[in-house]
# Entry
Amino acid sequence: MIMKKTVIFTLLCVLLAMPALAQPGYRYSRPRVQTVGHHGNEYVAWHRYYFGLRLGMNASHVSSDSPVLDGNGVKTSLNLGFAAGTQLTYRAPIFLESGLYYSQKGGKSGSGQDKFTYDLNYLEVPLLIKYKHFVGNQTSIQPYAGGYLAIGTDGSIKNYGSRTAFSSFDDGYFNRFDGGLKLGCGVGFNMLYVDASYDIGLSNIGQDDFNDTHNGCFTINIGVNF
# Structure
């Protein structure tokens, strides 16, 4: 727990310090290129490539046909990682973005002596198409859509009634593989970046083939792009 808090605090300090460490006078702006024809100037995105750090919070739940795994509560946890994007065409500010994230998901079910919590922690790779709509010289709104693939790294199921804990992935409850859709929107200002997204799990993460079990997760991230 102490190590986790130290990592979060360190990453938050890095995110806050990045804009101050930028070179004086350095700005992200939307350059113009002259085009032939009656349309005049055509805007392109800030840079063809970008990289970013992200730190945020997940609010996740598990839905299932199985009454044992079906969640009735939301679990809040950590999301952190880095992103990388490349512009697909100079004619429009459309980007392909991916990255690598450590994403803590899971959920809660029951109450009182029948309460369970599920910790499902993943290494996650998104693949997104993002459009940057400029509302100022240094400000953009960035809606995006795509998918994600994830592999479970660790996690536990806690039974508060019997005061016991089990491995989420190794004791016959959850599969390690997950995948689904990701929808969201970000806002960029200079180097700073904030976004909100929702993961719609499409893969059956339960090991019972007769009951469909899926992740659902709302995420808010802050970060920097450089």
Observations:
- The longest helix spans residues 2-21.
- Confidence is low (pLDDT under 50) at residues 18-46.
- The helical segments are 2-21.
- Residues 106 and 125 are 18 Å apart (CA to CA).
